[in-house]
Amino acid sequence: MKSLPLADIRVLEFGHTILGPSCSMVLADLGAEVIKIEPPGGERTRRLKGFGAGYFGYFNRNKKSVILDLKTPEGVAEAKRMIASADVVVENMAPATMDRLGLGEKDARALKPDLIYCSLKGFLSGPYEHRVALDEVVQMMSGLAYMTGPPGMPLRAGTSITDILGGVFGALGIMAALRQRDQGKGGAFVESALFETAAFLMGQHMTYSAVVGEKIPPMPARVSAWAVYDLFDTKDNERIFIGITSDNHWQYFCNEFGRPDLYADESLRSNEQRIDARPRLMPELQALFKTMDRVEIAARCERAKLPFAPIAVPEDLFEDPHLNANGSLAETELKPGVVTKLPKLPIRIDGEAFDLRLPPPKPGEH
Question: Which CATH superfamily does the domain covering 223-311 fall into?
Fold first, then answer.
């Protein structure tokens, strides 16, 4: 993209792990100059193992790295000097850490009155604000884990969804505050938090409870709004998800899969009738799909314009033909000798994507 929307914005990130880095990654991808302040030796996330091994390389692209020892007066003084030339500060340090260092919102905005200061925490102000939070903690306490797992088995989502979305909400707040600043309203203090992000995700279920007036079952035990919205086994021992979410879908399905008898059955004509008929309908469909392999089922679903999905694993996305054809993956050097393709921001402006400009930086590279 020739002209990046945030190209004239300088961001200082005092961030770690996912919440802060994901926020400033969005800003960096949109063109901001993001300077990541790291402690001596670099951010701890660089050395994490297990699932944490993916954190630094993904959430810190398009950034610069500067090492500052904030435990020394010299490091704090340098941080203050850098704040004075910044447009935005992003931090997700432990509660009160930045205030203790003299780098909190009030101190920072005294140095730069029109500064946008974004604080990302576990909880917004209230009884929980001093608690330590993690993505998994708020998934458990918001009902997200309850909704994800089968009854009696709460299960965290398969990605750090509240960390990432909390960071995205922080970036959204920053851009709104920058817009206000452009209107002459000066700097602002922006906050986003994990628990409130998780609660936001639960809003649709809270609404369901209020409307229906009964206890919400977890997603695996729900009564779906759609008669056919299920996983099916295939002839080649694979699985495929198929959704038949309208009466037109039902007609297309019956035509494409050679079952005019099902469409002729008056007791299956509407979605609501098919929900009532699931005890006899689903074994029919399971047996039908078991006679075909996954490739044939997918081809037929595509011809019939039915929602469907083979069951993928994350590694499948590296060579996904759609993502590769439309430029949604950016080749990224994670460390010497390790180059891979990773997802770009899922945004286009006038058909153009936001590309990789800088690989994840080495500690103190800039």
Answer: formyl-coa transferase, domain 3 (3.30.1540.10)
- Give the position of tokens 């009964």: 214
Q: Which residues of the chain have pLDDT under 50?
A: none
Q: Report the C-alpha gap between 303 and 320 in whole angstroms.
A: 20
CATH of 10-202+327-343, one of 1.10.15.40, 3.40.50.170, 3.30.1330.30, 3.40.50.10540: 3.40.50.10540
Amino acid at 167: G
Spatial separation of the C-alpha atoms in residues 243 and 250, rounded to whole Å: 10
Strands (E), 198-291: 228-233, 239-244
Among candidate residues 310, 311, 314, 341, the one with its CA nearest the CA of residue 328: 341
Quote the pLDDT of residue 224: 84
Measure CA of the first residue to CA of the last residue in the chain; give whole Å.
Answer: 24
What is the pLDDT, as a whole number, of residue 223?
78
Would you state the torsion angle of the CA atoms of residues 266, 267, 269, 275, taken in this order, to the nearest 10 degrees? 180
* Host H or E run for residue 252: helix 247-256
Q: Determine the number of helices (DSSP H) and then strands (DSSP E) in the chain.
A: 16, 11
One-letter identity of residue 120:
L
| Residue 364 near residue 38, CB atoms below 8 Å | yes
Give the helix/strand (H/E) hosting 87: none
Q: Is 229 exposed, middle or buried (0-12, 13-18, 19+ CB in 10 A)?
A: middle
List pLDDT tens digits, range 193-211. Answer: 999 999 999 999 999 999 9
What is the token pair recorded at 203? 């809003």
